[in-house]
């Protein structure tokens, strides 16, 4: 396909590696083959880990001054930026994302996030006085009590198909800036775009072994990266089901594990903000086809206004144009695969079996014979126990539920195995904020949203462990050491 990234090999410890087997990358918009990639041989994935271990233990990167690491990483990002046109075209082809989304929400947002992360790291103290009471210091004859934040070591970074570039940015940049060595393994569904990071490492002069990028068609390599004793931390973004397996795989060697997992986020509309519901519903599905872990796919509205909201959201969804992401008129592209489309169909059927109704959509759109398309779908759900209200569908499907009062809305929002994100809308900002404070979720947007290197995100409950972005996201890639110094007796 013309215009996409040209590299087809893995990048292991400073060298490009050709494998013996090839696998195809599919375009979900038309089911064509984008290209074939050379799969990383298992021995080379092993070597990526071993060389990452050597590079860290030898201190070639970890012992460099923060300012020097920042200089190299800024050059690294400059190379990524110079690959803009080919990288955006690659994301459109392998993920079925509209060009505007690939460029703004992945490429530009990812670069901004990465550069902000470098600045944030440099602004933070990584060795500081420990607040021990003076009398304890005197009794122990302590001259210094310091808290040091040091790199974890070797990090396996495993990224998802729906945000390959931006998710990689929010893993590899803080990990590298903190002095770690990293092995990046992108989703087999969208592996091609991540090879830009190997080329950037070469161009910036990143020491061999500090960053490797390995691609595969299955999960054997990922399992090696979550079980290998030389790996100190696994950072994973993906489903809660896979997250549970990673926890089990990492347990025997007691690795650090950072997980950003599934979500079933709620958007709550106070009575004075119901007019905003249609716009909020469109934001769930437009551009991403609902394939975002933070997508607020449960809409909670006053019960007496539910019919009004169902009508408004249905009209808004009927105006969405489903089609090829390269068509400028398209507002909703495909889901990633046939299996994902079947999952959407399955949960629409389950919603109906459990008393729900399909108000708009619910199936495959007409006129699109190839590609994994699903109609933007509005479900009228009788309660929060409906399977479509409890399970992450990861497609362009929204469920609308009526609440009695705000206590009922908060109860339903929190009645979920997940807790990744949430939204509250209200003209009375104080009242909306009061509701937001009661939600058991890692982030809540009140009448607005913020995605920044300086703002953390992550999940409660089965939506994950730890945080990405912000100071917490940097600290996730560091160990804490207490250093105490006293006079020899």
Helical residues, percent: 25-40%
CATH A-level architecture of the largest domain: 3-Layer(aba) Sandwich
C-alpha termini separation = 73 Å
Q: Would you state the CATH class of the largest domain?
A: Alpha Beta
Spatial shape? globular
Structural class: alpha/beta
Please tell me the overall pLDDT.
97
**Strand order of the main beta sheet, please?**
14-15-16-13-12-18-19
**Major beta sheet, specifics?**
7 strands, mixed
- The unreliable regions are none
Protein name: aldehyde dehydrogenase (NAD(+))
Domain Aldehyde dehydrogenase: 16-482
Enzyme class: oxidoreductase
Keywords: Oxidoreductase
Description:
By secondary structure, this protein is of the alpha/beta class. The protein has two domains: 10-261 and 463-484, Aldehyde Dehydrogenase, Chain A, domain 1 (3-Layer(aba) Sandwich); 266-452, Aldehyde Dehydrogenase, Chain A, domain 2, CATH 3.40.309. It is 38% helix and 20% strand. The protein has 16 helices and 22 strands. A seven-stranded mixed sheet has the order 14-15-16-13-12-18-19, sandwiched between helices. Helix 9 links the parallel strand 10 and strand 11 (256-260). Helix 1 (42-57) runs parallel beside helix 8. The longest helix is centred in the N-terminal third of the chain and has 25 residues, at 99-123. The mean pLDDT is 97. It comes from Actinomadura vinacea. Residues 16-482 form the Aldehyde dehydrogenase domain. Keywords: Oxidoreductase. It catalyses: an aldehyde + NAD(+) + H2O = a carboxylate + NADH + 2 H(+).
């Amino acid at each position: 396909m013309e215009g996409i990234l040209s590299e087809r090999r893995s990048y292991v410890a400073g060298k490009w590696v050709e494998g013996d087997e090839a696998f195809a990358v599919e375009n979900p918009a038309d089911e064509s083959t984008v290209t074939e990639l050379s799969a990383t041989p298992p021995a080379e994935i092993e070597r990526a880990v071993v060389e990452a271990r050597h590079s860290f233990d030898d201190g070639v990167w970890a012992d460099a001054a923060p300012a020097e690491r920042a200089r190299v990483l800024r050059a690294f990002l400059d190379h990524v930026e110079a690959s803009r046109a080919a990288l955006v075209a690659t994301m459109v082809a392998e993920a079925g994302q509209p060009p505007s989304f690939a460029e703004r929400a992945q490429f530009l947002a990812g670069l901004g996030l990465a550069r902000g992360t470098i600045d944030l790291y440099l602004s933070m103290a990584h060795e500081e006085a420990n607040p021990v009471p003076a009398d304890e210091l005197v009794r122990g004859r302590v001259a210094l009590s310091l808290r040091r934040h040091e790199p974890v070591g070797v990090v396996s970074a495993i990224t998802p198909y729906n945000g390959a570039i931006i998710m990689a940015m929010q893993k590899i940049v803080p990990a590298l800036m903190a002095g770690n060595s990293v092995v990046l393994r992108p989703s087999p569904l969208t592996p091609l775009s991540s090879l830009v990071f190997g080329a950037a490492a070469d161009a910036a002069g990143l020491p061999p072994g500090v960053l490797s990028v390995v691609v595969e068609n299955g999960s054997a390599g990922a399992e090696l990266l979550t079980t290998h004793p030389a790996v100190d931390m696994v950072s994973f973004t993906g489903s809660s089901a896979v997250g549970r397996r990673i926890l089990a795989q990492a347990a025997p060697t007691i690795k650090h594990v950072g997980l950003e997992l599934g979500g079933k986020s709620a958007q709550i509309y106070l009575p004075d903000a119901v007019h905003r519901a249609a716009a909020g519903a469109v934001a769930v599905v437009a551009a991403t086809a609902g394939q975002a872990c933070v997508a607020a796919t449960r809409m909670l509205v006053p019960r007496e206004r539910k019919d009004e909201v169902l009508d408004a959201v249905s009209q808004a969804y009927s105006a969405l144009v489903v089609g090829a992401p390269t068509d400028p008129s398209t507002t909703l592209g495909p889901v990633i695969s046939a299996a994902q489309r079947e999952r959407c169909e399955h949960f629409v059927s389950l919603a109906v079996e459990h008393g729900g109704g399909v108000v708009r959509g619910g199936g495959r759109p007409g006129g699109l014979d190839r590609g994994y398309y699903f109609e933007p779908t509005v479900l009228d759900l009788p309660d929060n126990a409906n399977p479509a209200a409890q399970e992450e569908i990861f497609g362009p499907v929204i469920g609308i539920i009526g609440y009695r009062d705000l206590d009922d809305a908060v109860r339903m929002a929190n009645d979920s195995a997940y807790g990744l994100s949430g939204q509250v809308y209200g003209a009375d900002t104080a009242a909306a904020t009061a509701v937001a404070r009661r939600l058991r979720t890692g982030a809540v947007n009140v009448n607005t949203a913020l995605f920044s290197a300086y703002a953390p995100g992550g999940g409660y409950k089965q939506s994950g462990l730890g945080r990405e972005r912000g100071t917490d996201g940097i600290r996730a890639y560091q160990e804490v050491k207490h250093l105490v110094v006293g006079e020899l007796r």
